[in-house]
Amino acid sequence: MLTNRLFFDDSLFKGEDNVKCDVYEKGGNVVVEMEAPGYTRDDINISIDRGELSVTFEKKSEEEENKKYLHRERKSYSKVTRTFYLGDVSEDEINASFRNGILVVSCPKAKQIETKKTINIGDSE
Fold first, then answer.
1. Is 14 a member of any domain?
2. How many whole angstroms separate alpha carbon 41 and alpha carbon 103?
3. From CA 15, how far away is CA 70, in angstroms rounded?
4. 46 within some domain
5. Structure pTM?
6. b/e string for 62-101 if b means 16 or more Cβ within 10 A?
């Protein structure tokens, strides 16, 4: 008898659940760390629009083998997109690095401009 775990194994489902990530603040930056095993730097696209960071992993692969009595052709395509709302970040100063299957995106928080003013109360005449 097979266990239920076999039928609901995470490896059977493709999509954003397979891209594990951590989002945290460190040193005035919002940092997004994502696991991307099997992807290369060229498979990753990062964009930001009004504080919303989108990371897309897209992989295309083709394999063809021709032998005298065997013909085999394999094609696969996968695309996963994760989107995060980061709030007010300096969009021009975002850095990203990719090493050993880990993508790290560091977004400096926007400097808060002091808009609060104190108003002195004068004497009424």
1. no
2. 9
3. 33
4. yes
5. 0.65
6. eeeeeeeeeeeeeeeeeebeeebebeebeeeebeeebeee
The torsion region of residue 87 among left (phi > 0), alpha (psi -120 to 50) and beta comes to left
Q: How many domains does the chain have?
A: 1
As a whole number of angstroms, the distance between CA 116 and CA 42 comes to: 45
Give the tens place of pLDDT for each residue, 19-68.
788 999 998 899 999 998 888 899 999 999 888 999 999 888 767 777 66
CB 58 within 8 A of CB 114: no
Place of tokens 């059977």: 12
Strands 95-99 and 102-108, by their bridges, are antiparallel
Neighbours of 105 (CB within 10 A): 24
Q: Give 76's contacts (C-beta < 8 A, 6+ positions apart).
A: 59, 60, 61
Residue count of the chain: 125
Residue 103 CB neighbours (<10 A)? 21
Q: Which domain holds residue 94?
A: 19-108
Is residue 115 a part of any domain in this protein?
no
